[in-house]
Design a protein that fits this description.
heterotrimer, A: 321 residues, 68% helix, globular, C: two-stranded antiparallel ribbon, two-stranded antiparallel sheet
Chain lengths: 321, 220, 670
């Protein structure tokens, strides 16, 4: 199981963990910039999320009187869990040092853990907005998570594995071909990713109207370094999902175990290109669609669930699709 | 016939099923018409692709018919009708989107389960295309059953017909005459339905067919 | 070993008898509970020690003379014996503290050891009579415990429903064993399990026995639609008994299912797998939806048991599907997943019931709408309860995730089972499993968030006190087991290997000798999971981040009133309640599943009448399944009522006609 702890492997894992963390705010900055430009605004500079984080980290925390220890621990847990999940994804190289410690199902469940903590933290102060946020979040999650697992099943049945590295290698090979069920899974995945990252049309990351907020309502009571950790976690989550799309559905040029440094650098550059494309697409998509009413969201996510199930069904009955 | 051409044929058929689901999902009339246009467009692509891989030039004509009539003329006409009747902003109350889609899933499972063992001897691309085509047909029927608005029923009918076309082109050796006659019969059906729609609306001031039932109940 | 187990049972029965005398005295109660805890630890140890050993038999010259009472301790029995021991030990330790607040100890103390003895005997039994006797002992002693507080509203009704269901389940099992014995049942030893195994049955009989076993054990375990007694009876009993009923007794019912279907009936047919899969999938989703609609903490937990039973049955159904098609490795994986979930659920459900019992002790409330803010008053209970919540929501790195992960691996394993029914049922079950896992997380955010977080909604909640050390020790032990089984799942999987080997003839690859203690169900390239490493990573990165932020950025902190968008309201009534928390999910699923309706009465402006919102929820199981049965029973009873008012001559005529009919049947038979 364990390869020799080779230096290159350690290096790749380290680069991966550092790069996801460092690039995540930039990606969010890019999406914001794209949206601003489409609205004919100048928009904040690309680096603004970093500045926000630095400012938040330097500020003191204002904590509600009746906040419990859970409220204070949650931001670090949410961040750590999301980071661990992100570092398990082969963004540019497969066969990461610890990628075998969790497969795609585990990554989904890890994000579920983060959300569990977040929803609890939203309930901790005992305000009505926190309750709204948590309640809606779990409603959205209760449909998004099964949809995600259906997608995982589809991909796992195609590749014969739930291990991300194996899946990426298989799907990058010509054997995989074009498959109906994978196309269905991709559409379902995009819907799930929009919901999980609290993007339009499910939630609006930039809203200031409390009654429409989901994610923002949950974190309403957070301030200072706690808010910084939660923001960073949500930046990371966006990066994680876009990288997952890249890894599962467009795994071209991903560096495989044992390939040389040059190949790794090319793969890294390709990953950056994929992220950029993903970010631009997301910005354009968000600008071209309106936010849904909350009770329209279940249908939207239900559609993703159905598509995932359809993909699985097609695979179960026919090997050709 | 394997590899990439096989995959693309599947992909297009799968995309048709997907668009059928999108129709079930869509409750507003105008977007529904857009989906119908897209449905016919994908059908045309699919037929053209079959023509290419089967080396059957007459299928190109079918594809052209699908493109011109179903993807352009019918949706545009329906759209104008909807505008003239002033129901373009209407949102239809359907049974429940989730339930309908679940029923749609069950229909897909059913058609796969029925078709794949039956056509076990046929070529893989044909049998799976036929199974998917049957699901398109069944979903079209489901749509006609669950919708109350006559326009959406027409849309359901058109998508059903698209499914039949898909099945027909998948099975090699379907004569052109049949295709053309099918296309024209659909066109005539469409015109008849269109005229009926206007008549219904003139009479009852709505195209909600639930009202028609009430009317019949009142007569008895 | 088996002798030791028998002595343990005898000791438990003796404790039950002793309990009748000493229940009135506080120290006496504590002694009884402490002694039963020791006996249960011994049982657990016996179970673990004989997991890998050969099956041991024992015959006692009791009961019916030509059969005796047969015991057998094989791998399956050993695994469940360990489970009963663990659950019994933790419940007994908990009861030492919890039992102090018992208002009617005389109705509780004697029956707890008897209940434990009954469950142990079910697991050990090796003939139909012993099994049924033990089954009824288990049912009746637990019924007595449900009746303990019979003066409280609803408890008598709960006990009545429970008794009917228990009798029903006993009856179906009786019929199942009768069919299993077949014609040679009258011969000596015809009712031992060994004889059942030795004599193959015709397929039609197998089918009937399967259905009867499914109904008989399923009604005890809580399969939908036979689950209705569970949310009534489990909350009615004292909390340590609720934990035993939910955490252990339902598992003993599953033991009964595995024993009959996997062991006695032999290789199943594929359609029976479809039945189990469908019932399991429906049970899991229905159970969690019921739980989400609930605001009574203990009823919520009881409904959650229904969900988990569904998940276990999904695993069992998968195992049957693979086994029916000769795929032993897949069957072993799915069966291991199911047994692992049996273990997990037993641990965290006991933990959660203990937690709800602690809340009940501290506040006198089970209704979540009257709780809130308990994390400040009862931090230790809150922490243990939180661990249980995370575990039951199938979130890594705790144990609930591992067993559901294994179930998913089994689903992914073989898309090319030949039967069409399975091809459709398995992916659909995967969807239902995923849905129930996600809904479970929502449900426990609600359970923990409304009861323990936020602000106290009543003075009882505001003045709650942390519970005693025994209760806490029991809860923390179980929480530690949740964590351990989550980070070292390989140990549990390896321990279950002899069980699957004995039942389906294969076991999962040995896990504990893998590097880094990761688990690999089939092959490394397919899937692997390492709870230890994930736990370690999360802990280290959270700790390091917190340290770095505090060291290099800022560690200042100021307390102030809550922000709440500038409109903080001092009244705790403005918080989200359990009902409002579940409202979105009720709207999404409730209208379809429960026919739920909401009516809002909003007085016009100027009117000072309160606005009202009313919600109506119907339980489909009661309406579609039980109401017709009850109506039919009532109708038949009315019809039979005539028979009560006949003349003596007519009664004699009835007896005479019955005798003649019997003789006729006998004549025709020959």
């Amino acid at each position: 199981m364990i390869r020799d702890l080779l230096l290159p492997d350690m290096l790749i894992e380290g680069v991966q963990m550092a790069s996801v963390l460092l690039l995540a705010p930039l990606l969010t900055g890019l999406v914001r910039k794209v949206k601003a430009r489409l609205q004919r605004r100048q928009g904040p500079p690309l680096m603004q999320p970093y500045r926000d984080l630095r400012r938040l980290l330097g500020k003191e925390v204002v904590l509600a009187d009746n906040a419990s220890w859970l409220f204070r621990v949650a931001p670090y847990m949410i961040f750590a869990v999301t980071w661990v999940a992100a570092s398990l994804i082969p963004t540019f190289a497969t066969g990461l040092l610890f990628s075998w410690s969790g497969d795609l199902i585990a990554i989904t469940a890890l994000l579920g853990s983060a959300r569990f903590m977040q929803a609890l933290a939203g309930m901790d102060i005992g305000t009505s907005f926190g309750g709204i946020g948590s309640s809606r979040e779990v409603m959205i999650a209760s449909l998004a998570e099964p949809a995600m697992l259906m997608i995982v099943l589809t991909v796992a049945l195609v590749a014969g594995s739930t291990q991300l590295s194996t899946i990426a290698v298989f799907l990058a090979s010509p054997e995989a071909g074009l498959r109906v069920s994978l196309a269905l899974a991709l559409i379902a995945f995009i819907i799930v990713a929009l919901a999980e990252n609290a993007r339009i049309p499910v939630d609006n990351p930039a809203t200031h109207l409390e009654l429409t907020m989901v994610h923002e309502a949950m974190v309403l009571e957070y301030s200072g370094r706690h808010l910084a950790m939660i923001d960073l976690a949500s930046f990371l989550k966006l990066l994680l999902y876009i990288s997952l799309i890249g890894c599962l559905f467009f795994p071209f040029g991903i560096a495989q175990t044992g390939s040389g440094l040059q190949h790794h650098l090319v793969a890294l550059a390709l990953w950056l290109v994929k992220l950029t494309i993903g970010g631009v697409f997301l910005g354009v998509f968000e600008m071209s669609i309106a936010k849904m009413r909350v009770f329209r969201v279940p249908n939207f996510l239900g559609a993703a669930f159905m598509l995932g199930l359809l993909g699985v069904l097609l695979l179960f009955v026919s090997q050709g699709m | 016939m394997h590899g990439i051409s096989f995959d693309i044929a599947h992909m297009l058929a799968g995309f048709l099923v997907l668009l059928s689901f999108l129709m079930l999902y869509q409750v507003r009339l105008l977007p529904l018409l857009h989906v119908l246009a897209a449905h016919a467009f994908v059908l045309a692509l699919s037929v053209a692709w079959q023509a290419y891989i089967q080396h059957a030039p007459h299928l190109y004509i079918t594809a052209a018919i699908a493109l011109v009539f179903k993807a352009i003329i019918v949706p545009v006409a329906l759209r104008r009708m909807v505008f003239r009747m002033g129901i373009h902003r209407e949102i239809e109350t359907v049974v429940s989107i989730g339930l309908t889609m679940l029923a749609g899933m069950a229909l897909v499972a059913l058609s796969l389960e029925v078709m794949l063992p039956l056509t076990a001897k046929a070529e893989p691309v044909v049998r799976e295309d036929i199974a998917l085509a049957l699901s398109v047909v069944l979903i079209g029927l489901l749509m006609m059953v669950t919708r109350r608005n006559a326009v959406s029923q027409v849309v359901g009918f058109m998508s059903l017909e698209n499914g039949i076309n898909l099945a027909a082109t998948g099975a090699q050796g379907m004569p052109l005459v049949v295709e053309i006659s099918v296309a024209f019969s659909v066109l005539i059906a469409f015109i008849v339905i269109g005229i009926f729609l206007f008549r219904i609306r003139e009479r009852f001031d709505t195209v909600d067919i639930g009202v028609l039932d009430e009317f019949r109940g009142g007569q008895r | 070993m088996i002798e030791a187990a028998a002595y343990c049972v005898a000791a438990l029965l003796a404790l039950a008898a002793l309990g009748v005398g000493v229940a009135r005295y506080g120290p006496g109660r504590s002694t009884i509970y402490a002694a039963s805890a020791l006996v249960c630890v011994a049982l657990m140890w016996i179970g673990i020690a004989s997991l890998g050993a050969d099956a041991a038999r024992m015959k006692l010259p009791l009961g019916l003379p030509w059969i005796g009472v047969n015991f057998r301790l094989d791998a399956l029995a050993a695994a469940f014996l360990a489970l009963v021991g663990l659950g019994g030990a933790s419940a007994s330790v908990y009861a030492i503290g919890y039992g102090r607040h018992e208002s009617e100890p005389g109705r509780v103390v004697p029956f707890v050891p008897a209940f434990l003895a009954g469950m142990t005997l079910v697991v050990l039994a090796d003939d139909a009579f012993a099994f049924l006797f033990a089954w009824e002992l288990m049912s009746l002693s637990s019924w007595a415990l449900v009746m303990a507080h019979h003066r409280e509203e609803g408890n008598a009704h709960a006990a009545y429903v429970y008794l009917i269901m228990a009798v029903f389940s006993g009856l179906t099992l009786l019929l199942a064993f009768g069919l299993l014995a077949g014609p040679q049942g009258s011969s000596p030893g015809g009712f031992t399990f060994a004889a059942f195994r030795a004599s193959p049955l015709p397929p039609a009989t197998v089918a009937i026995v399967f259905v009867l076993a499914m109904i008989g054990t399923g009604s005890k375990a809580g399969l939908v639609p036979l689950h209705v007694w569970l949310p009534l009876a489990h909350p009615a009993a004292p909390s340590h008994v609720s934990a035993l009923m939910s955490g252990v007794m339902t598992k003993v019912a599953i033991y009964g299912f595995i024993r009959i279907v996997f062991d006695l009936l032999g290789t199943p047919s594929w359609w029976s797998a479809v039945v189990v899969l469908v019932v399991g999938g429906v049970t899991s989703v229905m159970g969690v939806l019921y739980a989400l609609m609930e605001h009574d903490l203990k009823r919520l937990l009881a409904y959650h048991t229904v969900e988990n039973i569904g998940i276990i049955f999904i695993g069992l159904g998968l195992a049957m599907a693979f086994w029916a098609n000769g795929l032993a490795a897949g069957a072993a994986l799915a069966l291991t997943a199911a047994l692992f979930h049996v273990f997990n659920h037993s641990v965290f459900k006991s933990l959660l019931f203990f937690g709800s019992g602690a809340v009940l002790t501290a506040t006198g409330e089970r209704d979540m709408e009257h709780l809130g803010g308990l994390i400040h008053r009862m931090p230790k209970t809150a922490f243990a309860f939180l661990v249980g919540c995370v575990a039951i929501s199938a979130l890594p790195p705790l144990n609930g995730f591992v067993s559901e992960w294994l179930t998913f691996q089994a689903i992914v394993l073989h898309p090319d089972l030949p039967q069409w029914g399975l091809k459709v049922a398995i992916p659909a079950d995967g969807a239902l499993l995923a849905l129930s896992a996600a809904l479970a997380a929502a449900c426990f955010v609600k359970a923990f968030g409304v009861s323990f977080l936020g602000r106290p909604r009543t003075t009882q909640a505001a003045q709650a006190r942390e519970v005693d050390a025994f209760s806490l020790a029991s809860m923390f032990t179980l929480a530690a087991i949740c964590l351990l089984a989550g980070v070292l799942p390989g140990a549990v999987i390896d321990a279950l290997a002899p069980v699957t080997q004995a039942l389906v003839g294969a076991h999962m690859p040995t896990q504990m000798d893998r590097a880094w203690l990761s688990i690999v169900p089939i092959a490394e390239a397919r899937s692997s999971y390492d709870g230890l490493l994930i736990f370690f990573f999360i802990a280290v990165s959270a700790w390091a981040t917190a340290l770095a932020v505090h060291r290099f950025a800022s560690h200042r902190l100021r307390r102030g009133p809550a922000w709440d968008c500038g409109f903080p309201d001092p009244s705790p009534a403005t918080q989200y309640t359990a009902g409002s928390f579940a409202q979105p999910i009720r709207r999404v699923f409730g209208t379809v599943v429960f026919g739920s309706r909401e009516t809002v009465t909003m007085p016009p402006p100027g009117d000072t009448a309160p606005a009202r919102i009313e919600k109506h929820i119907h339980d489909p199981a009661w309406e579609t399944f039980y109401a017709p049965v009850a109506a039919a029973v009532g109708g038949t009873a009315d019809w039979m009522n005539v028979l009560q008012f006949l003349t003596i001559r007519r009664y004699l005529a009835f007896v005479f006609v019955a005798l003649i009919m019997l003789l006729l049947v006998l004549a025709l038979w020959q």
